[in-house]
Amino acid sequence: MSAIDLGRWPVRLTGLEAAAIANRIRANWRADVHRLWMQWNGERTVGTAVPLLHALFAGGADDERISVVLEKSDPNGDGDAWAEFAVLEAHYRAVWQHDLAGARAHLEQCEADCPEQGPYLRGQLVHLVFLCDRVPDAAALEIRAGDASAPDLLLMARAESMIAQGRIEDAAGQLALLEPRQEWMAIIKRTLEALVLVLGDDPAAGVALAIKYLWSSVVTLDTHSIPGYAYVASLGMCMLGRFDEIKSIVEIVYRMSDTNIFQSRFKTGLFMLGSFVAGWEGRGDYARNLASQAKAMNVGVGPFPAMFDNRELLVSATSTVDHMWDEIDDLLDRGFL
Q1: pTM of the full predicted structure?
Q2: Closest C-alpha among 226, 220, 225 to residue 253
Q3: 8 A C-beta contact, residue 65 and residue 37
């Protein structure tokens, strides 16, 4: 705790200690999934399906039970739970199955079936477009009159987009207006608040804030939020030259070996940062292994620094300047500055 209080990550959390932490997090996740599965299996409604899907998406996106839950849950029931179920199914299609068009069609059909949930469903679609493709256009980010349930989502999407465009101060302004009503959104807000500091004018403060959140998530065994906080802390540490701390954080997340739909791009960025540091320190095999793990997640290029899975582009003698600029042009075309 003395290190955490000073805004630093304990560098000795490696080896057996890192393995013990990761094993405890995974054991807690498995217990939660088992409990939620039993609840859903006893009453197959969207109300019991939503918490189960949240748990599965945060640590086992390749779990075969996901398709069973999506197919076998009774869609009739509480409107808010039904809308959340629809959003989780869209997330699964867009992020895991790489079918953004299918996710869009699904949400649009859900909006047609239940117009009162339209603002919420549209807000979620904007977030998915940012996550899986590009900065949404200005019209999509505009808050319409009467969109009472969407402003939080749109404020979040605006903040994400502004960070990706390099508009750090504007993003901070949007985050200050955001009052999340759901825990997953609160996690994103906290992650972005630390990222704004790291990419803004106080990287050390951003790292300290990310470390505080990360330590809390490790202590509470929160599988959902760990990759995002770990990514932001490691990005700032990389900028500040604090490489020993990065090694410990990367090792813990690496040993968790989960498939987190909500934060897969953060995890890709974290592993690539760890790969860079390992390469700089002469640990070539480990650097390639981390890069391979990032590539195996198969999520493509993300909107924030280091969120790509082609390490060879930077280190291979066969890569050309044209190859590099092709990647950069693609990012700029998506609005990622």
Answers
A1: 0.93
A2: 226
A3: yes
Question: What is the pLDDT, as a whole number, of residue 150?
Answer: 62
**Pairwise CA distance, residues 290 & 264, whole Å:** 14
Q: How many CB atoms lie within 10 A of CB 313?
A: 15
Within 10 angstroms of residue 196's Cβ, the number of other Cβ atoms is 25
Whether 149 shows a pLDDT value over 60: the answer reads no
| Residue from 234, 252, 253, 251 nearest 243 by CA | 234
Q: Which residue has the tokens 């009472």?
A: 148
- Kindly give the interhelix angle for 226-240 and 243-256, rounded to the nearest 10 degrees: 160
Task: Say which residue, 290 or 318, is predicted with more confidence.
Answer: 290
Q: DSSP string spanning 233-297?
A: HHHHHHHHT-HHHHHHHHHHHHHH----STTHHHHHHHHHHHHHHHHHTT-HHHHHHHHHHHHHT
Beta pairing partners, 195: none
267 neighbors 300 (Cβ within 8 angstroms)? no
**Three-state secondary structure call for residue 74:** strand
Backbone angles phi, psi at 15, to 5 degrees: 60, -130
2-333 CATH, one of 2.60.40, 1.10.8, 1.25.40, 1.10.3710: 1.25.40
Among 51, 3, 59, CA closest to 221: 59
Going by C-alpha positions, the residue among 160, 242, 165 that lies closest to residue 207 is 242
**Pair of tokens at residue 313:** 């582009």
* Encoded amino acid at 179, one letter: E
**C-alpha span between 230 and 215 (Å, rounded):** 9
Structure tokens at 252: 């813990």
Residue 241, sorted as left (phi over 0), alpha (psi -120 to 50) or beta, turns out to be left
CB neighbour class for 27 (10 Å; exposed up to 12, middle 13-18, buried from 19): exposed
The Cα–Cα gap between 199 and 58 comes to: 26
- Asked if 65 and 56 count as a contact pair (C-beta separation under 8 A), the reply is yes
Number of other CB atoms surrounding residue 251 within 10 Å = 21
From 262, 330, 261, 268, select the one nearest 304 (Cα to Cα).
Answer: 268
Average confidence (pLDDT) over 32-61: 94
